[in-house]
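name: query_chain
kind: protein
chains: 1
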Amino acid sequence: MSADYTANNIQILKGLEAVRKRPGMYIGSTGPEGLHHLVYEVVDNSIDEAMAGFCDRIIVTLEKNDVVRVEDNGRGIPVDIHPQEGISALELVLTRLHAGGKFDKGSYTVSGGLHGVGVSCVNALSSWLEAIVEIDGKKYFQRYQRGKADAPVKEVEADFGGSLHSAAYGDSWKTGTTIRWQADPVIFQETTTCNYDALATRLRELAFLNKGITIVFRDDRLSKPKETVFRFEGGIKQFVSYLNENKPCVPAEPLFITGERNDVISEVALQYNDGYLENILSFVNDIKTKEGGAHLDGFKSALTRTMNDFLKNYPKLQKKLDKEEKLTGDDVRAGLTAVLSIKVPEPQFEGQTKTKLGNTEVRGIIDGLVSEQLTLYFEQNPRTTEKILEKCVTEASARIAARKAKEATRRKSGLDSFGLPGKLSDCSAKDPAVCEVYIVEGDSAGGSAKKGRDSKTQAILPLWGKMLNVEKTRIDKVIGNEKLQPIIATLGTGIGKEFDISKIRYHKVIIMADADVDGSHIRTLLLTFFFRYMPALIEEGYVYLAMPPLYKVSFNKKEWYVYNDSELDAVIKEIGREPDRVAVQRYKGLGEMDGNQLWDTTMDPARRKMMRVTLPDAVEADKIFGILMGEEVEPRRKFIEDNAVYANLDV
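structure:
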């Protein structure tokens, strides 16, 4: 692969006019996800330079006024005149959709941005964009407004505020590209302000997937700017350790498998923890493949087959299973944390969102590689192999027990597709899109909710007592738990591997609990259950937290419902005169409100306040649930000590 990178390497697939007219077709949405997608597109260009071996540092900065800056020390986008188009290659890249060096195999062997929409789309959807390129000690600049260049590319002397040559990073960056832009509020009407945590999730992933690269993430919008540096010399092996932090694991260090076949470079890191759920992340050319594909299929088939082959060498473990019973994929992946990252020269992704790999030849490559190296590891580490197989056999026994428990539960209580729990007060509407179910703490609050609801669209499911902490429990116990059975039956989706979101009976699942410690605990237990066994509910935005008022203020036959202490102070200040005659009632439970009050304050769609539960960082959510709800005490103690200062205690 040549380091020469000039205008001759730029090939063009025309068409940019429709981007501003139909932005959702190119970036998915014009909400926060689409806004962040702009950042990912620019960063992916820098990552492609890193994968090609020409970049080892990227700086992403959130500036004030919703300006974003991305800098790298790669080769720099070419600025010479394109032979066919007669304008600078930089302007081509920034103004023509599908114009770039990714289509030229000599410039990039692999690329994550090949099926993306490119930096030209970022340009089209920005109020303005500036490009600064440094090549051969010279600096070039061009500015654009809503995708159109103000003037041709020009050589300049001034430093445009970038940090490439700041004292903190030395003066060694002789080449590179800086892109600064401000998202267009005409397009992004919901918000043009990026979320730091959401972007940090992707940047951390990229640093794990490209070991040795440094990604600096700055937030200069704060009065005291903060900076996070992502650099992981251990690559995806370190990624698995990060995912399994504070969990007992086998083996103690993640197993790492790597190899190159038919120009496909593969890396796999895996490790078992003491939990019951699998956590497998798969990537192709640094793009997360949420729906998997050929590479993940190859990994799973190799893992299951190899485990069954080695189980024959451990007759005591084999006897624990029913005759002719084999380990299934679910058995061997229970408690497994794995990261699979492959580099493919010409990936065939299914759909613009790149969520599934379609290259069928990759399955055989991964299957063979994992089978060979996993077999070698098992032969050389028999004690570790026995521990892993023992866990798999235990999971198989739990699977069989869960099946029997499910069958027994259906026979006993009718909690199948033909029956609903007796405590459920269902709504009359049948369209899930307009239906919502309130999961309510206690019969008292449930009674008030039933009286105050809109029976056409609002269903009420009362709960009694605290439910099971599923973080510490196998699925057979979950299925057989009398507190969780009504929830499973009410939603209609099934759980775990049988979960099917298309069968959901309500598009709003609203947790309504008291505003006290017990209520918080119930909310946490429910969210743990949804996250572990019905994660798509959260991912699709179906889960909400009701926000009942904390106080009722009465004065001169008028009433105000307020939701926090600051609102209370504001209402009392507004009343002003004779504050000693103001009556303030603190609600300690939902049952203290009658049906009308509960409707007026918490259930009326026109007036209620609710929080939608989102999942911007699934990796961090997994870690937090593991710390707060898992078996290990010490990580939980440390978390509480570190974060106690932020707690809002009602004492």
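note: The first strand starts at residue 57 and ends at 62.
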